[in-house]
Amino acid sequence: MAAAHEKRYDSAVRPRSYQDESYQHGFLGTVGDLQKAGVLQDVALEVEGRRFPCHRLVLSAASPYFRAMFTSGMAESRQKTVVLQGLDEGVFGEILSYIYSGTLHLSLDKVQPLYQAADLLQLDYVRNTCSSYMAMNVERSTCVDLYMFADVFSMDTVLKRCLKNIYRHFSKVATREEFCSLSVEQLTEIISHDELDVKEEITVWEAVVRWVQHSREDRLHHLPSILPHIRYNLLTPHNMVAILDHPMVREDPGRSAIRNVVKEASNEKKRVGMDTLEMAMIYNFKDRNETGKEEILFMNPRAGKYITCSYPEEVLRLYDTLTVTSDNDIYILAREVPDISQLTVLEFNNADNVWQSAGLPSVRWPDKIRHIDLVEVDGVLYLFSSGRTVNNARLLVQLTKYNWRMDQWQECSQLQFDSDVRQFDTSSLAVSCGPHIYVIMNTEMHCYDPSQDRWCKRTPPKVIPEHCTATSLGTEIFCTDKEFTKTMVYDTESDRWQERPGWPNPNPRNLAVNESPSLFVLENQLHVWFEPYTIHDQTSTAHLIYVYDRSADAWKDLQVAMPWKENMLGVHMSPVARIYLPGLTT
Fold first, then answer.
1. Domain 275-585's class?
2. Quick check: 222 and 184 in contact, CB under 8 A?
3. I want to staple 273 with a disulfide (CB 3.0 to 4.6 A). Which of 198, 225, 340, 350 is the partner?
4. Which residues of the chain does CATH 1.25.40.420 include?
5. Residue 210 DSSP SS3
6. Domain 169-272 top-level CATH class
7. CA-to-CA distance for 285 and 277, rounded, in angstroms?
8. HEC readout, 129-170
9. pLDDT tens, 430-464?
10. Global confidence as pTM
11. Longest alpha-carbon distance in the chain
């Protein structure tokens, strides 16, 4: 029996490895404590005259640069003090703090020198983190500076983000002081692109003049290589004459060659900003066409432009909401597959007519939430979600913002409601207007100030039990209900509501439409759109679009004839964006 028991015991024993995570975490802490206490240090690194006592073992473990220095028989391996060249003592202090703690502190004013130091010392984590931080902080005010830095170190991700920002804001970026610090190669790379968002080609010429004049004697000889990148066929005759007569061209010794370049300009295509049109987007979210693709109709009824584009079903999967930012970025909030409780943000690449990942982390659809709006304020994306508990006992609202610098979604301060909101409000809408977000209900209205992360109560409309659609124009917010019985206008500056007309009854064209209007602002005018009404498999192909005439205080029928397919039912009206028309037709 003993033998049998021993046999069973032996067969149950298997070798195992155990990992002490507390030891791993604690080891770095202990090393850091030794450094602070100045214990067991065996080498001093000198940077700009400042001595940093350290441990060779720790430095070698953290950096291949130091490992080679202390283990390859170099003279430094035997020295008690090693002088490091090409480093700033303050920056090296930050690097040393990371080596001993594993924590890296970044800010815009020191991320570039930290990257340079990490590149020299072969600290991959620091280098990659600095690169990600720069990519997340590309803005109009930083894009040129970061572009020049990223170009030197071939940081592709940062370069792409910077160029995208420069192209989109070229008119304003070109007036900044740092624009004049570009090299001639960088300048020509930028002005040669189709994606410059400029209305007139003369803007590109003026940017070149500003760049040359910044250091005229050193840069004038670059003109012959720069000028071919200006698209002279896009200039007006007046602007062409002005360029040829400009002192910079007229007085230059090589002006004959320059004049020939101007006169022999090829027939270049338009820049992105020259062929854009404000267009509203209508999306089918119920039925797909016979090809298994989703369709979006881009329309400008006042210009008579209607362009339908198809996109793979797996790209625009279970579409939820769309927003257009103040910088004309177009984002869709979509559900992931197979886990549709996860939401992802897609961005529209108009030049290539494709939807692609915006590179933002996904976010989970909150429990008991029925509706989500994606809104933007000052370049920051916010998710406004709303729903109700069982039996509509309590209204649930959550506001989450995307922190570009930290690359994560963060909850904003909680919105508090009065008790009667449970009984009287059946819907809530979120709309951005100026620097604030407004949450509109019938008996309550709240304003969120992002700069303070604070909510404040505002005057509610109290006449629309169930809001259907809302939009902003200037400092005003417009909203209405599903029946379009009236238009309510809220002045954000005076905190006052006014009632304006709704549905112009009777319908002058006697068309059957769904009682589900969508308000939108196109070319600085308020519009309302109704989709065709479907009954017994019979679809009206006509749509109603009205424009609000403020002077007459009335809605006027635009009498449009929109192209639409019978299988495009259950449509959704989306915001308005400036669309590059050639991109839709490629």
1. mainly beta
2. yes
3. 198
4. 169-272
5. helix
6. mainly alpha
7. 24
8. HHHHHHHHCCCCCCHHHHHHHHHHHCCHHHHHHHHHHHHHCH
9. 899 999 999 988 888 999 999 999 999 999 988 87
10. 0.72
11. 111
